[in-house]
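Recap for those who missed Tuesday's class. We walked through two folding examples back to back. For each one, the amino acid string is listed first and its predicted structure tokens come directly after. Nothing is annotated here on purpose, so try labeling regions yourself before you check the end of the notes.
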Amino acid sequence: MTHQRALGTYLREKSKQFPVITLTGCRQSGKTTLLRSLFPEYPYANLEHPETRAFALEDPRSFLGQFPDGVILDEVQRTPDLFSWIQAVSDEAKKPGQFLLSGSQNFLLLERISQSLAGRTLVSHLLPFSLQEQFAAGIGPTNIDQAIFRGGFPRIVAENLAPVDWLPSYIQSYVERDVRTITQVADLELFQRLLGLCAGRVGQLVNCSALAGEVGVSDKTVRQWIGLLKTSHILFELPPYHRNFGKRLTKSSKLYFCDTGLACSLLGIHSEKELAPHPLRGLLFENLVVLEILKLRFQSGQKSDLHFWRDHVGHEVDLLIGPEHALTAIEIKSTQTLHASLFDGLARFADLAGESSKRRLLIYGGDQKQVRTNGVTMPWSKIEID
């Protein structure tokens, strides 16, 4: 069964405007399924298939000539020389929606796009199922721990696969297929150690020096590896908000995973019961909420444009969204019980930001939406950001 993806509406609209649509995202996020369901009339070519790839590389003109009315090209980063031909054909035809490209090895894909297709393609990102998509399809989690533990990969959620069986294989496949074959990572065991250490620092400030010391590599290598994990949509960094309001600010970003189930697997959490008392449960919940808002923005074609704010003494707002003159400030708490002190950080920030802080939200582990004088409470299962 194919479940509807919220990004579909946006991609349909943009396919009428751009000659090339490029869909990126981590492996198994549902990119191919989405494109084939949106454009069932388009032929499909998987460039990981050896014979298809050989044809595309040896005779690109004839290969593309098979598809005068459009085509879905999957794992297109495997044929780097094809991008210049796609550029030439799309420039000549001037036909919107002619090429629909997808790829999971985004570090190569985006490099080729910047070289050959800049200004000709819309680049969009598909992450695993959002909570919103899961609930809309009737396959939503029944509680917070299930939401965090299983994450959002379509095969786990839609096919009810056990995360403890599927995710370790996913991690191994990612390391062996993408990292080994595409990058210059000399020691895969050290790379996997870094990945595990990142899971232990979920929701915390990035400290490359400390990570380098624990892994046994240089700061530069850690920065390169984290960059690789970001471009392949395993990790993302939440940057600090730059305006200081008269305070000295934290300059480091915070580290999150693009799937909380993946983080749980790397942490050795084997069940929802193990997650409940885990010391990182609160930060994993924070990851879940920040990730949900990131997905909502991607689904409507918006940039990330998310930040956090923290001053030098530790006062913090978990998430800021929007332009400087109309910020939405968000506090994230896993507790299911509301009490006034949960709004203290939002109130402090509102005093500092003044008129630029237009909206205050508390996203929490309960189920009540309340409009209070000091902010609006929003349940984790019903996150909506205007």
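Example two. Treat it independently of the first, because the proteins are unrelated.
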Amino acid sequence: MNPCPRCHAPLDAGEYEGVAVETCGRCGGRWLDPPDLKAIIDSAAAPAGGPPVRTGLDLTGAQDDAPCPPCGTPLDPFNYAGDSGVILDKCHRCGGLWLDAGDLDRVLAAVAASDQDLGRDIKRFSADLHEAEVRQDALAQRDTRPITDALSSAIANEIADSDTNP
């Protein structure tokens, strides 16, 4: 059994939402692979009872020298999704992820908040996007309209006649 990178207790094989994870019974941390975290996120239902709350930056327990449970390589802390404020640890050798107690809930809240922000942005910018599409369509139609005046038609015919490439 792999040891916990925080408290060195043996990790227990378990399951979260149908996904296999290793959990520390002492500190509550979890070890899993990135595809498993994605599967948990994808299967998570949106939290009931109001909008999700973004969490603040919590560096409790973040260590630069915590060892990877399977291979012993030092784990590197990183900010999940770049700016969520949820610090996870990753092994760059085997790719596994360590989530301290409560990190999974914070990741799920950050994802739900991001999804909510995306929906709000779609509503906010849809009129602007529609207007841009209408402008693009008008430009495309203007470019494909047939030439109707005599001078333009004569120039177009002259160019077409002199073009050596069929």
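Answers for example two:
Residues 1-166 form one domain.
The chain is about 40% helix and 15% strand.
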